[in-house]
What does this fold into?
Amino acid sequence: MSATLLSRPDAASLRTDAEFRRITAELTRRGFLGGLATSAALVGLAGCGTSTGHGGAPASGGPWSFTDDRGTRVDLPARPKRVAFLTDSVTAALWAAGVRPVAAFDSGQGIVPAVGLNLAADKSVIQIGNKDNELDTEALVSARPDLLIDAIQADGTLQTLSGNPKIKDLAPVVGIDMYQPVEHIVGQADRLTTALGATPADAAAHRAYQAAQAKLRAAVAANPGLRVGFVFDLGPNGIGVMNPATWAVLKTVKALGMKLVPVAGGKDNTYSQAVSWENVTGIPADLMVWAVSDPLPTEPVWKRVPAVAAGQLWKPDIRSWYAYSWANFATLLEGLAEHVASAKPGVGPKGSVA
Amino acid sequence: MSVRELAPSARPAPPPGRGGTGPIGGNALRAGGLVVALGALVVVALLSVAVGSKGIPLGTVVHELLHYDGSDDGVVIRGLRVPRTLLGIAVGAALGLAGALMQALTRNPLADPGVLGVNAGASAAVVAAIELLGLRSLSAYVWFALAGAAVASVLVYALGSRGRSAATPVRLALAGAAISSVLGAVVNWLVLMDQTAFDDFRFWSVGALAGRPLSVLTQTGPFLLAGAVLALSLGRPLNAMALGEDSARALGAHTGRTRALAVLAVTLLCGAATAAAGPIAFVGLAVPHVARTVTGPDQRWLLPYSAVLAAIWLLASDILGRIIARPGEIEVGIVTAFVGAPVLIWLVRRSRGARL
Amino acid sequence: MNEWAKGPDGRRRAVRVRGPRGGEVSFLLDGRALLVCGVLVALTLATAAVSLSTGEFRIPLPEVVRTLTGGGTSADHFVIDTLRLPRLLTAVLVGAALGAGGAVFQSLSRNPLGSPDVVGFDTGAATGALLVILVAHGSRAEIAAGAAVGGVGTALAVYLLAMRRGVQGARLVLIGIAIAAMLGSVNSYLLSRADVSDAQTAYLWLIGSLNSSDWPGVTAIGVTLAVLLPAAVRLGRGLNALEMGDDLACALGVRPERVRFAAVVAGVGLTAVATSCAGPIAFIALSAPQIARRLTGVPGPNVLPAALTGALLLSACDWIAQQGFTGTQLPVGVLTSVVGGGYLAWLLAREWRGGRG
It folds into this structure.
């Protein structure tokens, strides 16, 4: 086999669910700016990093500028009023933060509704996403946007722009890096919201998030030996173990001290490690998190996985995992904290998956 | 289905050696060869139980086979490896038989069972099941795949055989191309509209033996068995037909009936195999070529040889797929062509060409 | 200089055209073929007018004309100049290239299903494109280059592998199938291991889509056609003679090996650039020559009518694919598969009714 030719031999977002799937696009391209710690992200948040926006000033009228996660600075003669969101995650994160667009992307994967936005019913916003996950360029033109907001991929390119280079002539583009811990993604959304003259909508949710974060950090500290595996269904092929070096969610919890099941290849093996049914009982996890909304496997071997047999399995409602908002992640970290607190360490086998 | 596989050829298969003048020569030798091949199949089947993506010592394997103790290794061997080995033998034999039949039927050495639209029909039905009915389990796909394969091949046969003259090989190939094209478009349309369906479909569409419960084999077994019996009984009339329509009729063969029965057998075999394991290409096309180098063109020998050799090929590919990507696996549908294509190329380059 | 003479049946006339190197090229034209070509051009122009003036962003036809001649708003210009015009031109030119390439290959293989795919072209092009899309994450131009390199490289490898004291037809085809099966496995592997959104992008390419047509693509296919289409038309007479067998062709003064080689180069070149622009769009190469042959009633490859038929078919199919379905822009390859498959089925059924089956 020519497996060595491929950069992502076991990369598998296989059989993942709608929410999960769409986000894969935004989160799991090649490589990663690995190991960027929460603290570093928070520094960026505080404005010492790349932010040069005339952000906080709600007064409009003068020229407007904003420097995005790529370090690209957008300059406009006035603050933009007609904003278009080009991906599902951008739509969800900025809608939750309080920006009201003229056009928005929803490919129908369930991410956008997870922040309470129903584009089919909301006639004030032009839907520019197609069911086949393609941009409807003419609909975007008809919305006459003066600012486009896209997701930045791991290699630094823009997700929608890279497939539709023509639209760069329509309006300037701001990118939000979706390969960062949650604090950074939502923080950038809040900063952009302020820069666009709105008030970040979820200040209360931000406080709830911080409380949940503290709770999870405490739970992890109290149960230091616990190894957690975030897994998903590969159908007849087995299951996949998510790569801690890739996913925003995993990077977020890892920064709080959680011990995650490592996968072979580290950050080079972008998405996950595929594990055949013969080997699932050998995954060294004490707590399993079923990170898709697919039903749990019916394969008899699954019930013999030590963590599953011990009842240390959490199948959360993950609809909101990839709609980055303080509220959604407060719920997520809250639930994780409970399961970490009640799980016993040392249940799973020793060793590593690979 | 690509047009490439459907290129009709006016060149008839070489006439069967009457009384047996194959490369080995003599029925006793051929029978002996078949016994050897069956022996090889048993060895590969045992290997398939002993070797997998999880390393289990041979002693444990034997112990668990004889005295099941409910351990993890026992579940792996009895619950995973034994079923997929049985499935591999059944599916492989079916694909080999279907391929040999198809090449005899169309008198085209390049035909594979996909010509009848079986894969396209099965795929369209499975996608419809995923997309329109929301079904997501392998055992639910089985009935849809079977029904889709049957409907597609009936359509192809009807379109290919309308009129006074019965289905000619070229008309069958053209009808297959037409129906496959339309069904393929339906599949593409449905999966592009829904990422969930696309994701499920792209895994189903790579044929695999892994993760199939034993119930898949019991669901498809009767169809596979009926198809195999029917196929093996057609050796003699197919030999007659290889001489050409008129000679066959002069020899008293019912060409129309033989053709219809052969299409039925291919549909049963290939439809059930696709339903059980997903589409697996190339085995049905290539194995009869390998078998022909041993048996010559006599269908009475070519059919059983194709069945046994295809089962060996499929199982060996499956074993390889389990050990090259540990701790994961590579599906057998991907490995077969990769292992098989060099063999076929070597055979083709070695042969003097006339035998194609 | 052109010199007109009465054809064998009194209706057809052989047109003698002095070739660029002083050699004489002659081919058959007749009134009906000319009429057919004229009608095809007119219909393609009508399709173009409709395509440019319809879409989600409304621009009436007079505005389209004004925009094309320099007037109009900047939004009109963006929609026409950047979105619709390159897409329309790509459809027309790719359709023409596929039609002409198909005509050459069908004539060459004396087989209505003949295509460069016999030597693994499409599968190799797909492997090249998938590697660029899924592994290297390349740009559009890189995808096109990957497809062309993959297709031509595969065809060459198959040809070389089949060479053993000359190339035999059956050996060539069988090795083509084996290599295509192997590359097909690579393609399946790449698709099944990739991230689902990447895989969907790649799948769109595999079906054939004009969604990302751009001006560099138009230039590439335009230059290719300008060079290879006249060459293919000029090969028409030689191919026509070859259809009657090598011996007869020699007697007519045609050198079979040279014509065959030139035809393969022209056919592969046209198909390669068309495929790299828009992906392997199904059935245009297959059905356009068949339709053209029936429309003109002239035997032989009918390269020019096939090219015009291909242009009309693809541009019309693409308009329907864009406008005919709400909520999605269907990739044109889906529609051409249905149209082509349906056409073939109709042909089979009709030939039976005509008692010719």
